[in-house]
């Protein structure tokens, strides 16, 4: 039986055995999975915000896109993943409704999270092969190892696999 | 849009009001206890005696008081100890929070909230509100309780939302109206209004009623100044940030407006910084979210 592992807020988990990695409740946050299908290694991060602003101590590197991507990469490599095999999928990054005629950058945390996560993946040359992002709905996600499918439950709507 | 016919709507409205009426009030001993906690002449053991009638409630109070958030030096095992270490004011809001637990301890499928999620959301908004209140010099404990109570209307409206769900969702998607406006258009009530009605019936202070009533539309609250204005704004912001952080997010998702005026009135400019603080705070109280055990 595959083991189910919950990845809480700002957490980050890497595994090298059959597992289901689960994140419940993504609003503007991002559920990021990076995996190496050849060496059967995968990890998930529950990213809350785009930027750690270089704050000196980040006790939970999963919290920010700029600290989560390198930390997850490092953990995957230590479990035997090869950089050239790595692929990524993301989900999340929803937004509040914006008041008509009052688009605000201040609150576009969802969009900034998506953008930052993509930027850091690109920086580390990890191809993003699937995403379900944006919109105004909450999501929960499950990543099956070693099927490599990311099941996205859009709350109140339905489920899709990416 | 294909809506409900007039007769069905009227029937729904009557039934919503009936369901609000049927919500039991807070037990008299809880009401008495809350009064005792307001009275500086009360003794801690007096308060503890009153509460001891309900063992489940005492357990819930102690769990909340022992939460890492309060940073007590040791695990406390009695209400008397809680009062000694945390003070009457904090214990009062904990008692109120613990008393509404039983109303929230189920699943609310109309909102796609599994069991425990409404409690988790409410408690998180309570702690987030307390944090924001402290930063913005607003009364902390009042903000905490208002946060705990803001979504109470969902416990009544849930069944009706489930009934009208298809229409509500279509309305939100096709016309991009907030989920709450769609509730109101389809059912004649929205969860904020219903929450306000329940709290009115419970005879709780006006600030809690106003916070529940206006938590998605703070601009609709008329007063421009004063304590209640600030509490309404604090709850609005705390709720939005918790939704953005995905804490107890349901079928209504993020389909609400955020009032930038509320942020301005509170003097909040660094939203991401505040969200980051709330993440750390909520991780501290995380163990409180394990329900049902």
Q: Which features would summarize this protein structure in a list?
A:
heterodimer; A: 162 residues; alpha+beta; 60s Ribosomal Protein L30, Chain: A; five-stranded mixed beta sheet; globular; B: 293 residues; mainly alpha; Hypothetical protein af1432; 15 helices
Topology of this protein?
The complex is a heterodimer of chains A (162) and B (293).
Chain A: E1 3-6, E2 12-15, E3 19-26, E4 30-36, E5 41-47, H1 65-78, E6 87-92, H2 109-123, E7 128-133, E8 139-145, E9 149-154, E10 158-161
Chain B: H1 6-22, H2 28-38, H3 44-51, H4 55-65, H5 79-86, H6 88-104, H7 117-135, H8 140-149, H9 153-175, H10 179-187, H11 191-201, H12 206-213, H13 227-244, H14 260-266, H15 271-284
Helix pairs in contact in B: 1-11, 2-3, 2-6, 3-5, 4-6, 5-6, 6-8, 7-8, 7-13, 7-15, 8-12, 8-13, 9-10, 9-11, 11-12, 12-13, 13-14
Could you write a compact summary of the structure shown?
The complex is a heterodimer of chains A (162) and B (293). Chain A is of the alpha+beta class and 162 residues long.
What is the level-2 CATH architecture name of chain A? 2-Layer Sandwich
Largest sheet features of chain B: none
Round the mean pLDDT of chain A to the nearest integer and report it.
Answer: 92
Quickly count the helices of chain B.
Answer: 15
CATH top level assignment of chain A:
Alpha Beta
CATH class of the domain at 6-26 and 106-289 in chain B equals Mainly Alpha
Helix-residue proportion of chain A: 10-25%
Let me know the average pLDDT of chain B: 90
**Main structural class of chain B:** mainly alpha
Spatial order of the strands in the main sheet of chain A?
A: 1-3-8-9-10
Strand content of chain B: under 5%
Query: Terminal Cα separation of chain A, in Å?
Result: 23 Å
Radius of gyration of chain A: 15 Å
């Amino acid at each position: 039986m595959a083991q189910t592992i919950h990845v809480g807020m700002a957490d980050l988990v890497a595994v090298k055995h059959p597992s289901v990695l689960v994140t419940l409740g993504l609003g503007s946050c991002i559920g990021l999975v990076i995996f190496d299908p050849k060496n059967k290694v995968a990890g998930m991060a529950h990213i809350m915000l785009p930027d750690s602003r270089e704050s000196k101590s980040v006790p939970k590197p999963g919290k920010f896109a700029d600290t989560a991507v390198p930390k997850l990469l490092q953990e995957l490599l230590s479990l035997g993943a090869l950089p050239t095999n790595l692929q990524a999928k993301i989900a999340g990054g929803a937004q509040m409704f914006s008041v008509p005629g009052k688009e605000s950058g201040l609150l576009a945390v969802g969009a900034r999270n998506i953008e930052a996560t993509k930027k850091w993946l690109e920086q580390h040359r990890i191809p993003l092969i699937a995403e379900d992002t944006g919109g105004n709905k909450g999501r929960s996600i499950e990543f099956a190892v070693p099927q490599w499918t990311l099941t996205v439950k859009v709350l109140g709507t339905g489920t899709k696999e990416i | 849009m294909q809506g409900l016919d007039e007769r069905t709507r009227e029937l729904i409205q009557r039934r919503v009001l009936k369901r609000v009426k049927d919500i039991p009030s807070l037990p008299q001993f809880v009401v008495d206890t809350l009064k005792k906690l307001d009275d500086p002449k009360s003794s801690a053991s007096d308060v503890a005696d009153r509460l001891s009638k309900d063992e489940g409630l005492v357990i819930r109070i102690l769990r909340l008081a022992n939460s890492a958030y309060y940073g007590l030096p040791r695990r406390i095992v009695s209400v008397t100890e809680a009062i000694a270490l945390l003070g009457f004011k904090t214990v009062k809001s904990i008692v109120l929070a613990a008393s509404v637990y039983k109303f929230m301890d189920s699943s609310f499928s109309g909102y796609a909230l599994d069991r425990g999620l409404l409690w988790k959301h409410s408690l998180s908004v309570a702690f987030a509100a307390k944090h924001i209140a402290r930063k913005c010099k607003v009364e902390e404990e009042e903000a905490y309780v208002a946060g705990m109570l803001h979504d109470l209307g969902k416990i009544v409206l849930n069944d009706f939302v489930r009934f009208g769900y298809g229409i509500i969702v279509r309305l939100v998607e096709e016309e991009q109206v907030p989920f709450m406006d769609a509730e109101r258009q389809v059912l004649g009530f929205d969860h904020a209004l219903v929450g306000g009605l329940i709290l009115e019936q419970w005879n709780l202070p006006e600030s809690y009623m106003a916070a529940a009533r206006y938590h998605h539309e703070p601009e609709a609250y008329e007063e421009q100044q004063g304590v209640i204005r600030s509490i309404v704004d604090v709850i609005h912001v705390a709720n939005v940030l918790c939704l953005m952080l995905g804490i107890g997010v349901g079928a209504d998702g993020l389909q609400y407006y955020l009032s930038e005026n509320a942020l301005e009135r509170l003097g909040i400019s660094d939203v991401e910084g505040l969200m980051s603080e709330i993440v750390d705070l909520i991780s501290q109280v995380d163990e409180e979210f394990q329900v049902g055990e």
